Every structure is written in C-alpha cells, then in structure tokens.
C-alpha cells in the first residue's frame, strides 16, 4: 500500500497531520506493508530566506490583525499540537523559504533517509526554532540523519533535485491539491488536512479490503471532510 503525503515544512497542520497518520499506522494490522512517500509543496515559493520579523508580525500583516490577535490565533494551534505530543515554539519560530529544505529532502529520499529528514526538518522548525532555510542548519540536520556532509553541500550549492520538487508540485496541481497536508492512499482515497486518526485508519482499512477483494473497488474519493490545512493564501488557524 502506498501513501503519498504533500506537505511543507512551515505548515503546522502538516506536522500534526503526520502524527495522526503515524498513530493510525500503529493501529493498522497491515502497517508493515505500507510505504509512505513525502511530496513537496511550497506554501510561499516567493518567501525570503531571511527576515527580522517575528512569526506574529508576519501573521499580523498577512491576515490584517494585531500582533496580539496573531499570538492568540497561534495559541490554539499550539494547543492542538500538544495533543499529539508536539511543543510548538511560535515565539522563536523563524519563517523562511523552503525550497532548499525540499531539495534536501529529495536528496535524502535518494539515499533512503527521507523519513528521518522530513521529521527532523519539521522538528527543527516548529520545536527547536532553527533556521531551515540556512545551509549550515540543513547540513547539520542531514548529517544527523546519516547523510554525507560533502554530498549535502554539493546539493545545496547547486539546483540539484529542484526538478523533483517541481514534479511533485505539478502532480499536486494536476490532482487538485489546494492545501496541505494532503494524503492520497493508493491513488484511491484523498484525505485533506490534519484529520483525526480514525479517519486515516478507516481509509487504510477500506483500501486494504478493496485491494484484497474483500469489497468492491471504487474510484478516487475523499475519505472525510476537509481538515485543517494551509494554502498559498491562508492557514486554518
């Protein structure tokens, strides 16, 4: 069974949704036969690599609210994150461009380290308040995941794996992805947003039964209502 996951490393619901999926897989009796593939999706391709603004100031400008209102808005997301064991640090979070992070993840995939790097990038951004647009930070994360630092430097100092990133984004557009996280199971069930663990588990079971002749095959369909997502224009804070 194949699960494709479109996400961005600055999308809070992508991390929360990832945890919901992992929880579902822990309770899925055929989890050893499931392959998870992370797909690239840039929420803001034109974002600068460096900024002196806080996350609250950025959100304040983007949504036309006060800094105090932006902070209150993120408090709700932080509370959601805590329910899945994640301690988001919006106070120190460093917003940046994520293209290089996605290129690094694609390189990691070529070395069989994509899952480790995906988790480390999300953790670095949301919990450790690291600058994931900075090459030194990316090199450190890659080495911690078991990648060769010299290979990583070559990738980051070139445009290597950008084509793979663009390919993921093109596929997302073709299948109608409008926000992330977005999950597709065996090209059969689409799950949009950080939906409950039960939604993922039910979809996994349905696909398994259909693929193994236990129920009729069905076309690609949504496995639940729209969950919390981030798009190019907004996040469901």
UniProtKB/TrEMBL annotation:
Domain named DSBA-like thioredoxin is located at 3-205
Region entry Disordered: which residue ranges?
212-232
Q: One Pfam family this chain carries? A: DSBA
Q: Which domain of life is it from?
A: Bacteria
Q: Which CDD domains match?
A: DsbA_FrnE
Name this protein carries in UniProt: DsbA family oxidoreductase
* Organism for this UniProt entry: Alkalihalobacterium chitinilyticum
